[in-house]
Amino acid sequence: MPTPFDALVYAAHPEFMKLPEEVIKNRELLKIVMKKHGFQVDPMEWWHFNYMSDTKFELLDIPFERLGF
Asked: Which residues of 32-46 are buried (b: 16+ CB within 10 A; e: fewer)?
């Protein structure tokens, strides 16, 4: 992969191209597979994906005590 996980450098950008061809191919394969399963790559980090869903969930305001913590 282009960088170690969680490296906050410019090469971590998912479209950074000054990399060996094999690295670019591996990164693109990861993006294709993740997209196929409903994830979208973060625009700043090749390793950071967010699940995209049309499902809307209600925001709950529940105290930790009520959750048993």
From this structure: eeeeeeebebeeebb
The pLDDT tens digits of the residues spanning 4-58 come to: 888 889 999 999 999 999 999 999 999 999 999 999 999 999 999 999 988 888 8
CA–CA separation, 40 vs 48, rounded Å? 9
End-to-end CA distance of the chain: give it in Å, rounded.
Answer: 39
In DSSP terms, which residues pair with 41 in a beta bridge? Answer: 49
Helices assigned H by DSSP within 1-69: 21-36, 64-67
Could you tell me which residues come within 8 angstroms of residue 47 by beta carbon, excluding any fewer than 6 positions away? 1, 5, 6, 12
CA-CA distance, 65 to 29, in Å (whole number)? 44
